[in-house]
Amino acid sequence: MSDILDLEVSDYIVELSDLAIGRFSDCRHFFLQSPDRSVTRSFNFSTMFAKRIIPCLDCKDGRVVKGVQFVDLRDAGDPGKLAEIYNHEGADELVMLDISASQEGRATLMDTVNRVASRLFIPLTVGGGVRTLEDAQRLLSAGADKVAVNTAAVETPDLISEIAAQFGSQAVVVAIDAKLSRDATVEDQPSLSGGAVVSRLVREPDGRMRQSWAYPRVTVRRRPGTSPWDVVTYGGTHQTEFRALEWAARAESLGAGEILLTSMDADGTQRGFDCELTAAISKAVHIPVIASGGAGGLEHFAEVFQRGAADAALAASIFHFGQHSIRSLKEYLMAQGVPVRLSKAVENPKLNG
Amino acid sequence: MIALLDYGAGNVGSVMKAINYLGHAAQPVDNPELLERATKIIFPGQGHFGQMMTALGKRGLLGPLKKILSSGKPFLGICLGLQALYEGSEEAPEIPGLGLLQGRVKRFEGIFKVPHVGWSQLEIRRDSKLLAGVPTDSFVYYCHSYYGPETSQSAAVTDYGQTFAAAVQIDSVWAVQFHPEKSSEVGLTVLKNFLEM
Residue A291, SS3? Predict the structure, then answer.
């Protein structure tokens, strides 16, 4: 590109505010472009920041289950075994959700958490039925690194700040179940305006991969005065007064460290993530956004990173039933230009003796 | 005795799990007497720089800690345990650090999301026993809003809009900004290297 100008890194903050095009969550190489494409700046970074792939274990009575839109549960295995398989395959993180907890008031399965955590050396998030600071404390001491709060946070937003004050923001994931409002529509043919900035990998002539950046094409139409997505709770059975964008921003200001965003419209359909929702939330907050709901094929993951500006993507059934391995997903994403962690041949040091 | 320094807010539990998984034993240590008996020290830090330094002081651990750092006993700081080695931090400007590394810990600024949460690559700057068997460009797990600037003691760096110290070595004192206990095989390799020094 002939109009790329190389700048010192110290220049980019000022240039960014002049260009006013948003935030970046990755680094290696990227370029900024003004909305009319008249000004371009490029930057290079020496190390890559990966998009995360997170398998989710929806647990009930110590077994992993996954529902189609949270109803009609199917059994998909033993959580301890799945956790080990996923860790070995290169999962970047693991999420365990006790999906029955909110509906039936079940205590989260502490021994399952303990068992999974003792052999897992990647971050573990546990959620489902976390209603109090004490619930969070119990899960963290059982071996969780982060707790996910959902229904209880909507009902008592201060729960977010309480957990963050006690254990740090890095330990608080606010799970948001979002559903398109009946009075909103999403454009079929998205335009260039709006949306967050996303990255992809490009192979240089010398063979080295570099990270480059582009605008996703996302436009959401809504009637004046309305927000396109509502927050639902209790596993999607309860409509709230909260709007997803506002709630995400408020959760961040209360001390949330990450947002786990589930599209109730996409969940269980296997037709792809809701990229419009994900890009809108990603733009509304400064903290990482984990996209969830709707993964059915490898291409859906590329879409949610490139068009949805997600920092991480979470899925369950696509992995549990052996449709796709995490390694094959990551190889696909790398080929599509999405920066991912493909582990090198480092053997398990325990086995090496 | 391998001491796992516990000042009340560190992530002692998950580091202990990883040590045990690797077939070693360690003892959580929260008082100066025990700390002085340690032959090897791991210092996992988490939370707020000022609160950490204050908590160490209140428990009488600062003196013994400084003694250990110049004693030649192997020491491994993790996350905030790396930041503690600098002269101070923007997170608590009035509270001094241990001053083993020159410079002050800074907050990430600019266009990247803060905190830096997730997997970034290591760029190995020089060989060290701690990073033996860890190839350059290996991914490790980070979770931090503040970083220690690169110095001549940096054994590895990571670039997240700012190039920062990912791993440091000053004689027998090592420290990593990433979480080896959460960095899968690469992290376990780092811990194993330290445990077997």
Answer: strand
Q: What percent of chain A has pLDDT over 90?
A: 35
Nearest CA-CA distance, residue A287 and chain B, Å? 6
Q: What is the pTM of this model?
A: 0.84
HSE-CB for A215 with a 13 A CA cutoff: 18
Residue A89 forms beta bridges with which residues?
A: none
Q: Are A268 and A68 in contact (CB under 8 A)?
A: yes
Give the DSSP per-residue string, B101-166. Answer: SSSEEEE--SSB-SSEEEEEE-EE-S--STTTT--TT-EEEEEESEEPBP-TTEEEEEESSSEEEE
Which residue is it, tokens 């000053």?
Answer: B170
Q: ipTM value of the model?
A: 0.92
How far apart are the C-alpha atoms of B195 and B197, rounded to whole Å? 6
Per DSSP, chain B holds a count of helices (H) and strands (E) of 6, 13
- In DSSP terms, A148 is beta-bridged to A127, A173
Residue A50 DSSP class: P
Q: Would you tell me which residues 221-260 of chain A have a C-beta closer than 8 angstroms to some C-beta of chain B?
A: 257-258
DSSP A193: S
Whether A55 contacts A87, CB under 8 Å: no
Instruction: Choose from A49, A87, A210 for mutation: most chain B CBs within 10 A.
Output: A49
d(CA B105, CA B97): 9
Chain B contact for A312, CB < 8 A? yes
pLDDT tens sequence across B51-67? 999 999 999 999 999 99
State whether residue B120 sits within 8 Å of chain A by CB: yes
